[in-house]
Protein backbone atom coordinates (compact mmCIF):
# COMPACT_ATOMS: atom_id res chain seq x y z
CA UNK A 1 0.00 0.00 0.00
CA UNK A 2 1.29 3.43 -1.01
CA UNK A 3 4.83 2.03 -1.38
CA UNK A 4 5.89 4.71 -3.78
CA UNK A 5 4.62 7.48 -1.55
CA UNK A 6 6.37 6.01 1.48
CA UNK A 7 9.63 5.68 -0.38
CA UNK A 8 9.56 9.29 -1.55
CA UNK A 9 8.74 10.67 1.88
CA UNK A 10 11.65 8.66 3.17
CA UNK A 11 14.02 10.28 0.71
CA UNK A 12 12.86 13.79 1.63
CA UNK A 13 13.13 13.13 5.35
CA UNK A 14 16.53 11.48 5.05
CA UNK A 15 17.89 14.66 3.55
CA UNK A 16 16.35 16.67 6.35
CA UNK A 17 17.75 14.41 9.05
CA UNK A 18 21.18 14.58 7.47
CA UNK A 19 21.55 18.21 8.55
CA UNK A 20 22.24 19.19 12.13
CA UNK A 21 20.53 22.54 12.34
CA UNK A 22 17.79 23.59 9.99
CA UNK A 23 17.38 26.99 8.42
CA UNK A 24 14.09 28.35 7.17
CA UNK A 25 15.36 27.74 3.67
CA UNK A 26 16.02 24.05 4.44
CA UNK A 27 12.46 23.62 5.63
CA UNK A 28 11.03 25.45 2.65
CA UNK A 29 13.07 23.20 0.32
CA UNK A 30 11.79 20.10 2.06
CA UNK A 31 8.22 21.32 1.83
CA UNK A 32 8.61 21.98 -1.88
CA UNK A 33 9.64 18.35 -2.24
CA UNK A 34 6.74 17.14 -0.08
CA UNK A 35 4.43 19.15 -2.32
CA UNK A 36 5.73 17.33 -5.40
CA UNK A 37 5.48 13.97 -3.69
CA UNK A 38 1.81 14.60 -2.90
CA UNK A 39 0.97 15.89 -6.36
CA UNK A 40 2.63 12.86 -7.93
CA UNK A 41 0.51 10.65 -5.68
CA UNK A 42 -2.53 12.25 -7.33
CA UNK A 43 -3.63 14.29 -4.33
CA UNK A 44 -6.00 17.14 -5.22
CA UNK A 45 -3.93 20.30 -5.80
CA UNK A 46 -6.03 22.50 -3.50
CA UNK A 47 -5.71 19.94 -0.75
CA UNK A 48 -1.93 19.94 -1.29
CA UNK A 49 -1.80 23.71 -1.14
CA UNK A 50 -3.67 23.90 2.17
CA UNK A 51 -1.66 21.04 3.59
CA UNK A 52 1.70 22.61 2.77
CA UNK A 53 0.54 25.96 4.16
CA UNK A 54 -0.51 24.32 7.43
CA UNK A 55 2.78 22.43 7.78
CA UNK A 56 4.81 25.51 6.87
CA UNK A 57 3.06 27.69 9.46
CA UNK A 58 3.80 25.22 12.19
CA UNK A 59 7.28 24.21 11.07
CA UNK A 60 8.61 27.74 10.73
CA UNK A 61 7.60 28.51 14.28
CA UNK A 62 10.67 29.38 16.34
CA UNK A 63 10.21 26.38 18.64
CA UNK A 64 10.95 23.98 15.83
CA UNK A 65 14.04 25.74 14.53
CA UNK A 66 15.49 26.13 18.01
CA UNK A 67 14.74 22.60 19.14
CA UNK A 68 17.49 20.02 19.45
CA UNK A 69 15.89 17.77 16.87
CA UNK A 70 14.36 20.07 14.28
CA UNK A 71 14.08 17.37 11.59
CA UNK A 72 12.13 15.13 13.97
CA UNK A 73 9.84 18.02 14.79
CA UNK A 74 9.12 18.69 11.12
CA UNK A 75 8.41 15.01 10.48
CA UNK A 76 6.09 14.94 13.47
CA UNK A 77 4.20 17.94 12.11
CA UNK A 78 3.87 16.28 8.70
CA UNK A 79 2.52 13.16 10.38
CA UNK A 80 0.01 15.10 12.44
CA UNK A 81 -1.16 17.16 9.48
CA UNK A 82 -1.52 14.05 7.31
CA UNK A 83 -3.68 12.50 10.01
CA UNK A 84 -5.73 15.68 10.27
CA UNK A 85 -6.19 15.69 6.51
CA UNK A 86 -7.71 12.24 6.73
CA UNK A 87 -10.05 13.24 9.53
CA UNK A 88 -8.11 12.70 12.75
CA UNK A 89 -10.19 13.42 15.80
CA UNK A 90 -13.54 12.65 14.19
CA UNK A 91 -15.75 9.70 14.97
CA UNK A 92 -15.34 7.17 12.21
CA UNK A 93 -17.28 4.21 13.55
CA UNK A 94 -20.59 3.36 11.91
CA UNK A 95 -23.52 4.83 13.76
CA UNK A 96 -26.11 2.09 14.01
CA UNK A 97 -27.81 3.27 17.18
CA UNK A 98 -31.41 3.39 16.03
CA UNK A 99 -34.53 1.28 16.24
CA UNK A 100 -33.90 -1.93 14.29
CA UNK A 101 -33.91 -2.80 11.48
CA UNK A 102 -31.29 -0.11 10.83
CA UNK A 103 -30.78 0.52 7.09
CA UNK A 104 -27.24 1.04 5.80
CA UNK A 105 -27.05 2.06 2.15
CA UNK A 106 -23.98 1.45 -0.01
CA UNK A 107 -23.62 3.34 -3.26
CA UNK A 108 -20.97 3.96 -5.89
CA UNK A 109 -19.94 3.27 -9.45
CA UNK A 110 -19.86 -0.17 -10.99
CA UNK A 111 -16.70 -2.07 -10.19
CA UNK A 112 -15.82 0.00 -7.14
CA UNK A 113 -16.40 -3.03 -4.94
CA UNK A 114 -19.92 -2.39 -3.63
CA UNK A 115 -21.24 -5.93 -3.65
CA UNK A 116 -18.05 -7.37 -2.18
CA UNK A 117 -18.06 -4.68 0.49
CA UNK A 118 -21.71 -5.42 1.37
CA UNK A 119 -20.59 -8.96 2.14
CA UNK A 120 -17.57 -7.77 4.13
CA UNK A 121 -19.75 -5.42 6.13
CA UNK A 122 -22.31 -8.15 6.83
CA UNK A 123 -19.57 -10.47 8.08
CA UNK A 124 -18.05 -7.77 10.25
CA UNK A 125 -21.44 -6.86 11.76
CA UNK A 126 -22.19 -10.48 12.49
CA UNK A 127 -18.90 -10.76 14.32
CA UNK A 128 -20.15 -7.84 16.41
CA UNK A 129 -23.21 -9.94 17.27
CA UNK A 130 -25.59 -8.14 14.95
CA UNK A 131 -27.97 -9.91 12.63
CA UNK A 132 -27.76 -8.35 9.14
CA UNK A 133 -29.91 -8.96 6.06
CA UNK A 134 -28.37 -8.34 2.66
CA UNK A 135 -30.68 -6.59 0.19
CA UNK A 136 -29.93 -6.68 -3.56
CA UNK A 137 -31.37 -3.46 -4.97
CA UNK A 138 -29.52 -3.53 -8.27
CA UNK A 139 -32.24 -4.80 -10.56
CA UNK A 140 -30.57 -3.85 -13.84
CA UNK A 141 -27.86 -6.45 -13.84
CA UNK A 142 -29.32 -9.88 -13.04
CA UNK A 143 -25.75 -10.98 -12.37
CA UNK A 144 -25.56 -8.45 -9.53
CA UNK A 145 -28.35 -10.19 -7.59
CA UNK A 146 -26.69 -13.55 -8.18
CA UNK A 147 -23.34 -12.15 -7.05
CA UNK A 148 -24.78 -10.94 -3.76
CA UNK A 149 -26.46 -14.31 -3.24
CA UNK A 150 -23.11 -16.04 -3.74
CA UNK A 151 -21.47 -13.68 -1.27
CA UNK A 152 -24.29 -14.31 1.23
CA UNK A 153 -23.82 -18.06 0.94
CA UNK A 154 -20.09 -17.77 1.59
CA UNK A 155 -20.59 -16.00 4.89
CA UNK A 156 -23.88 -17.61 5.78
CA UNK A 157 -25.88 -14.37 5.81
CA UNK A 158 -29.39 -14.33 4.37
CA UNK A 159 -29.98 -12.40 1.14
CA UNK A 160 -33.45 -10.94 0.61
CA UNK A 161 -35.14 -12.50 -2.37
CA UNK A 162 -35.55 -9.89 -5.10
CA UNK A 163 -36.16 -10.30 -8.80
CA UNK A 164 -34.77 -8.40 -11.78
CA UNK A 165 -37.28 -5.81 -12.97
CA UNK A 166 -38.86 -5.02 -9.57
CA UNK A 167 -38.84 -1.42 -8.36
CA UNK A 168 -35.74 -1.01 -6.14
CA UNK A 169 -37.63 1.18 -3.66
CA UNK A 170 -40.32 -1.50 -3.32
CA UNK A 171 -37.62 -4.15 -2.81
CA UNK A 172 -36.04 -2.15 0.00
CA UNK A 173 -39.40 -1.50 1.66
CA UNK A 174 -40.36 -5.16 1.43
CA UNK A 175 -36.96 -6.12 2.84
CA UNK A 176 -37.52 -3.80 5.79
CA UNK A 177 -40.91 -5.39 6.53
CA UNK A 178 -39.36 -8.86 6.19
CA UNK A 179 -36.51 -7.89 8.55
CA UNK A 180 -38.98 -6.59 11.15
CA UNK A 181 -40.91 -9.85 11.06
CA UNK A 182 -37.86 -12.08 11.14
CA UNK A 183 -35.63 -10.38 13.67
CA UNK A 184 -32.92 -8.89 11.44
CA UNK A 185 -31.48 -5.75 13.06
CA UNK A 186 -29.52 -4.29 10.10
CA UNK A 187 -30.36 -3.94 6.40
CA UNK A 188 -27.41 -3.68 4.04
CA UNK A 189 -28.66 -2.18 0.78
CA UNK A 190 -26.58 -3.03 -2.29
CA UNK A 191 -27.71 -0.36 -4.74
CA UNK A 192 -27.18 -0.20 -8.50
CA UNK A 193 -24.03 1.30 -9.96
CA UNK A 194 -23.28 2.57 -13.43
CA UNK A 195 -20.07 3.16 -15.28
CA UNK A 196 -20.58 6.92 -15.01
CA UNK A 197 -22.72 9.22 -12.96
CA UNK A 198 -26.17 9.26 -14.42
CA UNK A 199 -29.07 11.41 -13.30
CA UNK A 200 -31.65 8.64 -13.56
CA UNK A 201 -29.63 6.47 -11.21
CA UNK A 202 -29.14 9.36 -8.81
CA UNK A 203 -32.90 9.94 -8.68
CA UNK A 204 -33.43 6.29 -7.88
CA UNK A 205 -30.91 6.47 -5.04
CA UNK A 206 -32.65 9.58 -3.72
CA UNK A 207 -35.99 7.74 -3.73
CA UNK A 208 -34.46 4.83 -1.79
CA UNK A 209 -32.93 7.26 0.67
CA UNK A 210 -36.17 9.18 1.19
CA UNK A 211 -38.19 6.05 1.72
CA UNK A 212 -35.78 4.08 3.92
CA UNK A 213 -33.99 6.95 5.67
CA UNK A 214 -30.74 5.00 6.04
CA UNK A 215 -28.75 5.58 9.20
CA UNK A 216 -25.58 5.46 7.12
CA UNK A 217 -25.15 6.28 3.43
CA UNK A 218 -21.71 5.03 2.50
CA UNK A 219 -20.01 5.85 -0.76
CA UNK A 220 -17.80 3.00 -1.95
CA UNK A 221 -14.71 4.38 -3.68
CA UNK A 222 -12.03 2.50 -5.56
CA UNK A 223 -8.71 3.83 -4.24
CA UNK A 224 -6.98 2.81 -7.46
CA UNK A 225 -8.88 5.47 -9.42
CA UNK A 226 -7.32 8.36 -7.49
CA UNK A 227 -8.85 11.75 -8.12
CA UNK A 228 -11.67 10.32 -10.22
CA UNK A 229 -12.89 8.58 -7.09
CA UNK A 230 -12.74 11.88 -5.25
CA UNK A 231 -14.76 13.72 -7.91
CA UNK A 232 -17.39 11.00 -8.09
CA UNK A 233 -17.62 10.93 -4.30
CA UNK A 234 -18.28 14.65 -4.27
CA UNK A 235 -21.03 14.30 -6.91
CA UNK A 236 -22.74 11.55 -4.91
CA UNK A 237 -22.34 13.63 -1.77
CA UNK A 238 -23.99 16.66 -3.32
CA UNK A 239 -27.07 14.67 -4.30
CA UNK A 240 -27.30 12.17 -1.46
CA UNK A 241 -25.51 13.85 1.45
CA UNK A 242 -23.49 10.73 2.23
CA UNK A 243 -22.46 9.94 5.80
CA UNK A 244 -19.07 8.47 4.99
CA UNK A 245 -16.77 6.69 2.57
CA UNK A 246 -15.53 3.13 2.28
CA UNK A 247 -12.25 3.08 0.38
CA UNK A 248 -11.60 -0.23 -1.38
CA UNK A 249 -8.55 -1.88 -2.94
CA UNK A 250 -6.05 -0.29 -0.59
CA UNK A 251 -4.14 -3.58 -0.79
CA UNK A 252 -3.28 -2.79 -4.41
CA UNK A 253 -0.79 -0.25 -5.67
CA UNK A 254 -3.02 2.81 -5.27
CA UNK A 255 -0.93 5.97 -5.20
CA UNK A 256 -2.65 7.50 -2.21
CA UNK A 257 -4.47 10.41 -3.86
CA UNK A 258 -7.95 9.19 -3.01
CA UNK A 259 -7.12 8.36 0.60
CA UNK A 260 -5.50 11.74 1.13
CA UNK A 261 -8.02 13.95 -0.68
CA UNK A 262 -11.45 12.45 -0.23
CA UNK A 263 -12.07 13.66 3.31
CA UNK A 264 -10.85 17.18 2.60
CA UNK A 265 -12.86 17.52 -0.63
CA UNK A 266 -16.15 15.98 0.51
CA UNK A 267 -15.95 16.85 4.20
CA UNK A 268 -17.06 13.27 4.93
CA UNK A 269 -14.91 10.77 6.81
CA UNK A 270 -13.43 7.56 5.47
CA UNK A 271 -14.98 5.02 7.81
CA UNK A 272 -13.81 1.66 6.53
CA UNK A 273 -11.19 0.37 4.11
CA UNK A 274 -11.11 -2.73 1.91
CA UNK A 275 -7.77 -4.51 2.07
CA UNK A 276 -8.33 -7.46 -0.26
CA UNK A 277 -10.80 -9.54 -2.20
CA UNK A 278 -11.55 -11.89 0.66
CA UNK A 279 -14.66 -11.17 2.70
CA UNK A 280 -12.80 -10.64 5.95
CA UNK A 281 -10.56 -7.98 4.41
CA UNK A 282 -12.37 -4.95 5.82
CA UNK A 283 -10.75 -2.68 8.40
CA UNK A 284 -11.82 0.32 10.42
CA UNK A 285 -10.03 3.41 9.13
CA UNK A 286 -7.75 5.21 11.61
CA UNK A 287 -6.30 8.45 10.19
CA UNK A 288 -3.37 8.53 12.62
CA UNK A 289 -2.36 4.96 11.92
CA UNK A 290 -2.71 5.51 8.18
CA UNK A 291 -0.46 8.57 8.41
CA UNK A 292 2.13 6.45 10.20
CA UNK A 293 1.93 3.73 7.57
CA UNK A 294 2.30 6.26 4.77
CA UNK A 295 5.42 7.64 6.42
CA UNK A 296 6.85 4.14 6.82
CA UNK A 297 6.51 4.21 10.60
CA UNK A 298 4.52 0.99 10.70
CA UNK A 299 1.24 0.34 12.43
CA UNK A 300 1.76 -1.86 15.43
CA UNK A 301 -1.68 -1.21 16.90
CA UNK A 302 -3.48 -2.59 13.84
CA UNK A 303 -1.17 -5.58 13.86
CA UNK A 304 -2.07 -6.41 17.45
CA UNK A 305 -5.79 -6.00 16.78
CA UNK A 306 -5.52 -8.26 13.79
CA UNK A 307 -3.72 -10.92 15.78
CA UNK A 308 -6.35 -10.70 18.49
CA UNK A 309 -9.24 -11.07 16.08
CA UNK A 310 -7.70 -14.20 14.63
CA UNK A 311 -6.72 -15.65 17.96
CA UNK A 312 -10.24 -15.17 19.27
CA UNK A 313 -11.65 -17.58 16.72
CA UNK A 314 -12.58 -21.15 17.52
CA UNK A 315 -9.58 -22.29 15.50
CA UNK A 316 -7.27 -21.01 18.19
CA UNK A 317 -9.02 -23.02 20.89
CA UNK A 318 -9.01 -26.11 18.69
CA UNK A 319 -5.36 -25.67 17.95
CA UNK A 320 -4.44 -25.26 21.56
CA UNK A 321 -6.20 -28.51 22.40
CA UNK A 322 -4.37 -30.22 19.54
CA UNK A 323 -1.03 -28.90 20.73
CA UNK A 324 -1.70 -30.17 24.19
CA UNK A 325 -2.65 -33.60 22.87
CA UNK A 326 0.00 -34.17 20.19
CA UNK A 327 2.71 -31.73 21.16
CA UNK A 328 4.50 -29.63 18.56
CA UNK A 329 4.48 -31.72 15.38
CA UNK A 330 4.69 -30.87 11.70
CA UNK A 331 0.91 -31.04 11.68
CA UNK A 332 0.37 -28.49 14.44
CA UNK A 333 3.09 -26.39 12.84
CA UNK A 334 1.13 -26.39 9.57
CA UNK A 335 -2.03 -25.32 11.44
CA UNK A 336 -0.11 -22.43 12.92
CA UNK A 337 1.09 -21.37 9.49
CA UNK A 338 -2.47 -21.46 8.23
CA UNK A 339 -3.57 -19.27 11.10
CA UNK A 340 -0.88 -16.73 10.31
CA UNK A 341 -2.02 -16.81 6.71
CA UNK A 342 -5.53 -15.91 7.79
CA UNK A 343 -4.17 -12.65 9.13
CA UNK A 344 -3.32 -11.64 5.58
CA UNK A 345 -0.15 -11.84 3.57
CA UNK A 346 3.11 -12.09 5.47
CA UNK A 347 4.46 -9.15 3.50
CA UNK A 348 1.43 -7.06 4.46
CA UNK A 349 1.88 -8.00 8.10
CA UNK A 350 5.58 -7.23 8.10
CA UNK A 351 4.88 -3.78 6.73
CA UNK A 352 2.94 -2.92 9.84
CA UNK A 353 6.08 -3.29 11.90
CA UNK A 354 8.04 -0.01 12.00
CA UNK A 355 10.98 -0.14 9.64
CA UNK A 356 10.19 -3.63 8.38
CA UNK A 357 8.97 -2.42 4.99
CA UNK A 358 12.29 -0.77 4.33
CA UNK A 359 14.27 -3.68 5.67
CA UNK A 360 12.41 -6.02 3.33
CA UNK A 361 13.31 -3.93 0.32
CA UNK A 362 16.95 -4.16 1.29
CA UNK A 363 16.83 -7.93 1.41
CA UNK A 364 16.64 -8.15 -2.36
CA UNK A 365 16.99 -11.61 -3.77
CA UNK A 366 15.49 -13.17 -0.69
CA UNK A 367 12.50 -15.38 -1.28
CA UNK A 368 9.38 -13.35 -0.38
CA UNK A 369 7.97 -14.76 2.86
CA UNK A 370 4.58 -15.60 1.35
CA UNK A 371 6.17 -17.85 -1.24
CA UNK A 372 8.36 -19.39 1.43
CA UNK A 373 5.24 -20.16 3.48
CA UNK A 374 3.51 -21.74 0.50
CA UNK A 375 6.52 -23.98 -0.06
CA UNK A 376 6.58 -25.12 3.56
CA UNK A 377 2.87 -25.86 3.43
CA UNK A 378 3.20 -27.82 0.19
CA UNK A 379 5.97 -29.95 1.70
CA UNK A 380 3.99 -30.73 4.84
CA UNK A 381 0.88 -31.47 2.78
CA UNK A 382 2.78 -34.07 0.78
CA UNK A 383 3.56 -36.06 3.91
CA UNK A 384 1.40 -38.84 5.28
CA UNK A 385 -0.31 -38.30 8.60
CA UNK A 386 2.15 -40.60 10.30
CA UNK A 387 5.10 -38.70 8.91
CA UNK A 388 3.62 -35.43 10.09
CA UNK A 389 3.24 -36.79 13.58
CA UNK A 390 6.75 -38.18 13.76
CA UNK A 391 9.27 -36.67 11.41
CA UNK A 392 11.97 -39.05 12.62
CA UNK A 393 10.69 -41.74 10.26
CA UNK A 394 11.50 -39.55 7.24
CA UNK A 395 14.28 -41.49 5.53
CA UNK A 396 15.87 -40.73 2.18
CA UNK A 397 13.25 -42.34 -0.05
CA UNK A 398 10.39 -40.73 1.87
CA UNK A 399 12.08 -37.35 1.50
CA UNK A 400 12.46 -37.91 -2.24
CA UNK A 401 8.77 -38.77 -2.57
CA UNK A 402 7.76 -35.67 -0.61
CA UNK A 403 9.95 -33.41 -2.73
CA UNK A 404 8.38 -34.82 -5.89
CA UNK A 405 4.86 -34.51 -4.50
CA UNK A 406 5.30 -30.92 -3.41
CA UNK A 407 7.20 -29.71 -6.46
CA UNK A 408 10.25 -28.88 -4.36
CA UNK A 409 13.73 -30.33 -3.98
CA UNK A 410 15.12 -32.80 -1.45
CA UNK A 411 17.26 -29.94 -0.12
CA UNK A 412 14.09 -27.94 0.57
CA UNK A 413 12.62 -30.88 2.45
CA UNK A 414 15.84 -31.45 4.40
CA UNK A 415 16.06 -27.82 5.32
CA UNK A 416 12.49 -27.70 6.58
CA UNK A 417 12.93 -30.83 8.69
CA UNK A 418 16.17 -29.54 10.13
CA UNK A 419 14.65 -26.22 11.07
CA UNK A 420 11.54 -27.87 12.41
CA UNK A 421 13.42 -30.30 14.64
CA UNK A 422 15.46 -27.41 16.05
CA UNK A 423 12.24 -25.54 16.80
CA UNK A 424 10.77 -28.65 18.37
CA UNK A 425 13.77 -29.06 20.66
CA UNK A 426 13.44 -25.48 21.75
CA UNK A 427 9.70 -25.86 22.40
CA UNK A 428 10.40 -28.89 24.58
CA UNK A 429 13.01 -27.01 26.55
CA UNK A 430 10.62 -24.14 27.07
CA UNK A 431 7.82 -26.42 28.17
CA UNK A 432 10.11 -28.00 30.73
CA UNK A 433 11.05 -24.62 32.08
CA UNK A 434 7.46 -23.52 32.46
CA UNK A 435 6.40 -19.89 32.54
CA UNK A 436 8.90 -18.94 35.22
CA UNK A 437 11.87 -20.31 33.36
CA UNK A 438 10.71 -18.54 30.23
CA UNK A 439 10.63 -15.21 31.98
CA UNK A 440 14.12 -15.82 33.31
CA UNK A 441 15.30 -16.52 29.81
CA UNK A 442 13.80 -13.27 28.48
CA UNK A 443 15.47 -11.28 31.23
CA UNK A 444 18.77 -12.95 30.55
P1 LIG B 1 -19.41 -3.54 -7.66
O1 LIG B 1 -19.64 -3.52 -9.14
O2 LIG B 1 -19.19 -2.17 -7.12
O3 LIG B 1 -20.45 -4.30 -6.91
O4 LIG B 1 -17.99 -4.25 -7.44
P2 LIG B 1 -17.66 -5.74 -7.00
O5 LIG B 1 -18.01 -5.97 -5.59
O6 LIG B 1 -18.20 -6.69 -8.00
O7 LIG B 1 -16.06 -5.67 -7.06
C1 LIG B 1 -15.34 -5.45 -8.27
C2 LIG B 1 -14.00 -6.15 -8.19
O8 LIG B 1 -13.18 -5.56 -7.20
C3 LIG B 1 -14.11 -7.61 -7.79
O9 LIG B 1 -13.19 -8.35 -8.57
C4 LIG B 1 -13.70 -7.62 -6.32
O10 LIG B 1 -13.13 -8.85 -5.95
C5 LIG B 1 -12.68 -6.52 -6.30
N1 LIG B 1 -12.53 -5.91 -4.97
C6 LIG B 1 -13.48 -5.37 -4.17
N2 LIG B 1 -12.94 -4.87 -3.03
C7 LIG B 1 -11.60 -5.11 -3.10
C8 LIG B 1 -10.49 -4.83 -2.24
O11 LIG B 1 -10.59 -4.23 -1.14
N3 LIG B 1 -9.26 -5.24 -2.68
C9 LIG B 1 -9.10 -5.87 -3.88
N4 LIG B 1 -7.87 -6.23 -4.23
N5 LIG B 1 -10.11 -6.14 -4.70
C10 LIG B 1 -11.36 -5.77 -4.34
TrEMBL record:
Protein name in the entry: Signal recognition particle protein
Subcellular location(s) per record: Cytoplasm
Organism: Geothermobacter hydrogeniphilus
Gene3D superfamilies according to UniProt: P-loop containing nucleotide triphosphate hydrolases, Signal recognition particle SRP54, nucleotide-binding domain, Signal recognition particle, SRP54 subunit, M-domain
Domain SRP54-type proteins GTP-binding residues, every copy: 269-282
Keyword Ribonucleoprotein: yes
Family per record: Belongs to the GTP-binding SRP family. SRP54 subfamily.
Single GO MF annotation: GTP binding
Domain free text: Composed of three domains: the N-terminal N domain, which is responsible for interactions with the ribosome, the central G domain, which binds GTP, and the C-terminal M domain, which binds the RNA and the signal sequence of the RNC.
EC number(s) on file: 3.6.5.4
Catalytic activity: GTP + H2O = GDP + phosphate + H(+)
Main localization (coarse): cytoplasm
Quaternary structure annotation from Swiss-Prot or TrEMBL: Part of the signal recognition particle protein translocation system, which is composed of SRP and FtsY.
Residues where GTP binds: 108-115, 190-194, 248-251
A biological-process GO annotation: SRP-dependent cotranslational protein targeting to membrane
GO cellular component, as recorded: signal recognition particle
One Pfam family cited in the UniProt record for this chain: SRP_SPB
PROSITE patterns linked: SRP54
Known role: Involved in targeting and insertion of nascent membrane proteins into the cytoplasmic membrane. Binds to the hydrophobic signal sequence of the ribosome-nascent chain (RNC) as it emerges from the ribosomes. The SRP-RNC complex is then targeted to the cytoplasmic membrane where it interacts with the SRP receptor FtsY.
Keyword terms: Cytoplasm, GTP-binding, Hydrolase, Nucleotide-binding, Ribonucleoprotein, RNA-binding, Signal recognition particle
